[in-house]
Amino acid sequence: MESITRQQRILGQLNSLWLPAAMNLLNVRIAHYDRSADPARPEYNQHVIYVFWHEFIPIILPHWGHTPLTILVSKHRDGEWVNQIGENLGMHVVRGSSSRGGSAAIRKLKKNSGFSSIAISPDGPRGPRRKMAAGPVFLAAMLGMPIVPLAAGIKNPWRLGTWDKMAVPKPFSRVRMIFGPKIHIPRTGDRELLESYRVSTERLLTGLCDTAQDWAESGARMFGEQPFVRGHRCNRMTFDPPRVDRPNIGGRAQLAPDQAAA
Asked: What DSSP designation does 124 have?
């Protein structure tokens, strides 16, 4: 078991080096409904819970290296490579589940939510593909953090023979990412209401991925699109609570990406 752990550690270190370098060989553009939801941007002003499909982990994690982010990684053996990559990219990592007996993981996420956002692939670690589990919605309701769906599209990627059909972009191909609107989940124990948020969030994430895929394949320009820029930031950030006599900046969803920031 020790030799496997050592191999996984070395593989994680290698992946953390080549994945960011590989991003430089791609044509990456990003669109935001709200730029303050992107931890890599200077406008970032509120910790959130990101949800993205498991198949896009190879292109999403390098974007967030050395930013205030905690990734939730399953204790399943297949999650070890994500754990190693996250740690070597300067992220915080919590092992466990947000919905299946993961009380220790939830306590750690609650602690980390004071200084970082949280990233979850809600269809991992074993699927079904693009079917969102209830964990992120319950977590958002408990912690009072908005959910931000993060979509991706890749022109003609390689697809692995895994359950999620993991997407690997070819060199110099077009990659498009969309940060969706902030979805505020009420602090409630009403399971039917939370289920409705789960369903609507799943549909929104899937729809945004379809939009990102069309964008990648067409090569068209998206209103307010930005080039991919990597910058190292502190991986711990704290914010003052919003004042009650003024609106919470960035707290509402725009109708089209980045209209308010343009």
From this structure: T
